[in-house]
Write a structure and sequence with these properties.
With 398 residues, the chain is mainly α. The protein is built from 14 helices and 3 strands. Helix 2 runs antiparallel to helix 3, helix 5 packs antiparallel against helix 6 and helix 6 packs antiparallel against helix 13. The longest helix is centred in the C-terminal third of the chain and has 32 residues.
């Protein structure tokens, strides 16, 4: 196989190999998200002085992020290639930038629902933890691809292979302090990418044990000095998961109504705008429980359509990951596939009581600018990697 650094990937030629099904799924999900956010939030917005009683408040806010996210998606997809992301300066800037924003959030951040993970930057509220997921994928892909090139293979006994993963786990634990749900997605990405590298089982066992031990040490230290690693709000969510109907008008209020909304949807749903549970029974209908609104108004058929669109993106990501020998492209496509899969799993699982509530948004559908922008950039990077994989295969480089 020819070395990537000797290959030339003119953007005009690689653009001929863009997989437009990924773009189509992205656009359709974004449009569905706008429709369901408006449907799920219009009553709440019309009743609140915070929104100036404007029923389109959340819709208007989200559409700005959709336009911005779509613009970023087009620029990254059509006007860049992976030669840019393979430069050493890129992962350095990304990691340094995300650490700086996490630190700023810790110092100057705003607390929402018991979690201090929002940073006010001018006219927007930025949830820094949303961007950590993509930074981790691109950092690990660069580091291990670089090491593979230098040694022509990854040496399993080289302890230096531990450092990048431990570094990312520490960042994940930092995020967990204020955003437990997002940290679970981060850990899933880290460990999935580690096992995807297919190190010997013995080495993997030692690494996994070491990371678990380090995590236990950090969690134990926090418990000793703080009394608990999880906030009261997070502990209440866990208790609600096990006993939602013990307090249906208190802690279990949202989850019980979420389950009612899902069951109320039936096969074809109540119709867009006709859902009942969003009328004050689901206080976070446009964010954490957007899936419940979708299930009630679009029914099982609508849910299956949306899940099919997610599945299309994820299957494409895993498929292209298996189609190339280039380690960087394999790790990027696989990591983004895991990112989308796990985030959907946690959101839908929480809304349907398959998992404890984590507060993570449903990709492209939930209200929230940070989440939408993070997913948009991730899918753009996926599209860039895919067009390069297809270009390489057609020209005999793989």
């Amino acid at each position: 196989m020819k070395k990537v650094k000797k290959l030339k990937y003119p953007i005009s030629k690689t653009n001929q190999h863009i997989d437009y099904t990924i773009i189509l799924a992205y656009i359709v999900l974004s449009i569905i998200g706008l429709v369901m956010i408006y449907s799920g939030s219009m009553v709440k917005a019309a009743r609140s002085d915070f929104t100036n009683f404007d029923p389109k408040f959340f819709f208007n806010s989200q559409i700005r992020y959709v336009i911005f996210g779509l613009t970023l998606f087009v620029i990254i997809t059509f006007f860049t290639n992976t030669r840019l992301y393979r430069k050493a300066i890129v992962p350095v800037v990304l990691v340094a930038g995300i650490i700086m924003f996490l630190l700023m959030t810790q110092i100057f951040g705003t607390e929402v629902n018991g979690e201090k993970n929002w940073l006010r930057l001018g006219f927007i509220n930025l949830q820094t933890s949303e961007f950590v997921k993509l930074v981790i994928i691109m950092y690990l892909a660069y580091v291990y691809d670089r090491r593979h090139r230098v040694n022509n293979r990854l040496i399993p006994t080289d302890v230096k292979h531990l450092a990048p993963f431990i570094f990312m786990v520490i960042i994940g634990l930092w995020v967990a302090y204020n955003d437990f749900g997002t940290s679970m997605i981060i850990f899933a990405i880290i460990f999935s990418m580690f096992f995807y590298l297919n190190f010997p089982k013995k080495f993997s066992f030692y690494v996994f044990s070491g990371v678990i031990g380090l995590a236990a040490l950090i969690v134990g230290t926090v418990i000793v000095f703080k009394g608990s690693f999880l906030s009261d709000y997070q502990l209440a969510r866990i208790d609600t998961f096990f006993h939602p109907f013990n307090d249906p008008y208190g802690e279990g209020y949202q989850l019980t109504n979420s389950l009612i909304a899902i069951s109320n949807g039936g096969l074809f749903g109540q119709g867009i705008g006709n859902g009942i549970l969003k009328l004050g029974y689901l206080p976070e209908a446009q964010t954490d429980f957007i899936f419940s609104v979708i299930a009630e108004e679009l029914g099982l058929i609508g849910v299956l359509v949306i899940l099919s669109l997610y599945a299309l993106i994820v299957i494409k990501a895993f498929y292209y990951s298996s189609m190339t020998k280039d380690l960087y492209l394999r790790l990027v496509t696989f990591g983004i596939g895991i990112y989308i899969t796990v985030q959907c799993f946690f959101n839908i699982g929480g809304a349907s009581k398959a998992l404890p509530l984590t507060g993570v948004p449903l990709p492209l559908l939930s209200f929230g600018g940070s989440s939408f922008l993070s997913i948009s950039i991730a899918l753009a990077v996926l599209s860039v990697a895919v067009k390069e994989i297809r270009y390489r295969r057609e020209n005999g480089y793989d």
